[in-house]
Amino acid sequence: MYGALMKGYVQNNQASKAIDIFNQIDKPDEIIINLIFNACAQLRTPEALNLVNKISNEIPKSFHSNSFINTSLLDALIKCGDIKQAESLFDKSKNKTIEMYGAIMKGYIENNQANKTIDLFDRIKNPNEILLNLFFSACAQLKTLEALNLVKQVSSEIPKSFRSNSILMTFLLDALMKCSDIEHAESLFDKSKNKTLDMYGAMMKGYIQNNQAKKAIDLFNQIKNYNEVVIILLFNACAQLRTSEALKLVNKVSNEIPKSFHSNSFINTSLLDALMKCGDSKQAESLFDRTTNKTIELYGAMMNGFNLENNPIKTLNLFKKMKVNNVQGNIAIFRCVIKALSQIGDYELSQSIIKQVPNSFFVNNQIQYALIDMWGKSGHVDLAKEIFEKLPQPNQVEYTNMISCYGSNGMGAQAIELYYKMPKAFLDEGTYVCILNACSHSGLVQDARSIFQSIQMKTEKIYSAIIDCLSRASFFEEAQKLIDEYEYDHLPSIVVYMAVLSGARNIKNASLSQKTYDHMKKLFSQSTNPLTSAAVLLANTYASSGDIEKASDIRDELHKSGQKKKMGLTSTVVNGEFYKFRAHDRSHPRSKEIYTEVKKLSAELLQHGHQYDSSWITRPLNGDETVESALCGHSERLAIAWDFVANPNASRIQLTNNLRLCGDCHRATKLIAAIRKCKIIVRDANRIHHFSTDGKCSCNDYF
Would you kindly state one Gene Ontology biological process term found in this protein's UniProt entry (predicted)? Predict the structure, then answer.
């Protein structure tokens, strides 16, 4: 009777009650001891581990010859985190059963020690189907070429009778997919006569993990009677595609599935994620609001979606709602919150919210590299560096984030120094792009050349980064040689030519811009949106060189074709509130005060010798406009003015701009910082500018 109750509690995830019942028993038998170890394994706490050790020392020695007890004891030790003691017990056991091997192999996998699982598997002469499942799981966890070779070797040696085991086939398919051997998995799947939903699921999941979402959808269309797992995978595939067709499929399937499926929190989370990533945030918000039992995962999917559509304020507002509803944030939630703060880029707002992160979370790698990124993007390299230097062994992402942090803040020399300290095993495409960008922002062309030459596998992004560096420094001939080198065995890249156009814009070289743009039109005749950006850059180059008429002609053509250029927006946080401005914006309730402050700032600028540069006006002036009013209406000027209206004696202002800072705004901001004795930090699309009170900028006018 005691045993029945204890077993029932364990099966219903009430292990603590099973332990309470155990404490009422004077002389537990072997079955009861088995159950108490199972209960402790379910709890996975230090207290449970202490109880396991206490009981294992007190039970009669004869109990230790019971393989079932040894198996459950091994399982409890591993799940409670004491792998060393589990290994010691296993090694001391003379009669090792298949179940004992299985318990310790499973424990290794759960503790991300797949190599140990494989080593143990090699010691087994006749593995059963369960051990083969665990072996394939270990190989799937490793995802290496060596693991793939082992999967192929073992699968070719297993008895033919095993191949009728659908569970084994599911694990095998999963391992092949995770080791990126899609062809082998497809061949095996196609040959299987009795395909189960689990096998379909393994294939769909594998396609998604290998960025082949369309194949996952094709497979879904072959399934007649799907289960909840398959629906989740379909929504994940649609979320990966992010197309209008994928959105239609999401809506169709979500309307057709049984109502009972909508009570599954995992389905709701994947559905919401798919809606957000396919661009239907309204429907996602409606689903979220209708959901009565909101899980932490649902909050996370919503926050992640808001961040993806660059709406960080909604993420922070949702975080506030969580606190009001007494929902405790986990690591994933705080990662989303930190990502939102990175997008906003305001120090004081970041500081106020980071104080709410539990201290225990700061040792988590994901939180650490998110914080490095956040402090870097808010212009506080010192705080990012402080976190980085406390890391005992920085990982690849943390090194790359810190290099990016130095680079975007104009500290190219520090970025290079850290790059050469980075373990060579960590160097990948992302790291190379970050360090080349850091060189580009600081004008360290020779360092960039040296790093580029040392890279063995040069990708499109790496070529783009070095060509941007060379073009920014006006080494156009050298940039062209690299373009020719790249195109010798690659298709032409729009990004590469955009770098050249941007460099030509910097030196107002309309001839080079036109030549580059004409060549792009030939190369990318089928392209639309990317060439819109190219046409805007060309028009801006003509305008900056004084040919307003030519610039207007290009813009007229864009207008007639229905293509729109990206609107410039500047955001700022004032007294804890987020504000966003566009050029000549009058939507703010205190616009009159803002424009009065703009005029006041303009008068101060003129008084201190500022001359408005008409070359940065990239459109014809309206009848009532002047060069001064056109430039003073830029979103950056309005945001700065609002900061001073709200806080006349501000000593620090932060702005985030989605486009590159114009040259006149850059010169004006340097003067404003000096006149008002106010440090101004502006993060634009390319880098972060630190305007100091002595009238200088951290970029040294190289931007």
Answer: system development
Q: At what angle do helices 30-43 and 67-79 cross, to 10 degrees?
A: 20
Number of domains forming the structure of the chain:
1
The parts of the chain modelled with pLDDT lower than 50 are none
**Which two tokens mark 603?**
């008068």
Helix (H) or strand (E) segment spanning residue 296 = helix 296-308
Q: Helix, strand or coil for residue 588?
A: coil
Any idea of the CA torsion for 137, 142, 146, 150, to the nearest 10 degrees?
-10
Distance CA 621, CA 376 (A): 38
Q: Whose structure tokens read 């360092």?
A: 447
The set of residues, in sequence order, having a beta carbon less than 8 Å from that of 33 and lying 6+ positions away, is 55, 59, 63, 69, 72
The 3-state secondary structure of 427-445 reads CCHHHHHHHHHHHHHHCCH
Quote the pLDDT of residue 322. Answer: 93
C-alpha 639/C-alpha 653 separation (Å) is: 9
Distance CA(189)–CA(169), nearest Å, equals: 9
Reduced to 3 states, what is the DSSP secondary structure of residue 581? strand
By three-state DSSP, how is residue 48 classified? helix
The Cα-based distances of 107 to 100, 167, 541 in angstroms read 11, 20, 63
Residues 298 and 289 sit within 8 Å (Cβ to Cβ): no
Any idea which residue has 């179940």 for tokens?
99
Give the C-alpha separation, 574 to 583, whole Å: 19
CA dist 661 and 67 (Å) reads 72
Other Cβ atoms closer than 10 A to 356: 11
Q: What's the CA angle centered on 158, arms 154 and 159, to 5 degrees?
A: 170
By DSSP bridging, strand 688-691 and strand 679-683 are antiparallel
Please name which of 335, 327, 410 lies closest in space to residue 697, comparing C-alpha atoms. 410
The secondary element (H helix, E strand) that includes residue 680 is strand 679-683
DSSP states of 400-433: HHHHHHHHHTT-HHHHHHHHHHS-GGG--HHHHH
Q: How far apart, in whole angstroms, are the C-alpha atoms of residue 32 and residue 533?
A: 72
Residue-level pLDDT at 530: 61
The whole-number pLDDT of residue 656 equals: 95
- Asked whether residue 640 is domain-assigned, the answer is yes
pLDDT digits (tens, 9 = 90+) for 341-364: 999 999 999 999 999 999 999 989
Phi-psi region of 364 (alpha: psi -120 to 50; beta: other; left: phi over 0): beta
Instruction: Name the pairing type of β-strands 679-683 and 652-657.
Output: parallel
Cα 463 to Cα 468: distance, rounded to the nearest angstrom: 8
Q: Which two tokens stand for residue 675?
A: 């006149």
Domain, as residue range, for 641 = 569-697
How much is the pLDDT for 553? 87
pLDDT of the residue at 682: 96
In a domain, 614, yes or no: yes
- Tokens found for residue 488: 């010798």
Q: Report the DSSP beta bridge partners of residue 681.
A: 654, 690
The dihedral over CA atoms of 33, 35, 37, 38, expressed in degrees to the nearest 10, equals: 170
Asked whether 431 and 399 are in contact (CB, 8 A), the reply is yes
CB 330 within 8 A of CB 336: no
Domain assignment of residue 602, yes or no: yes
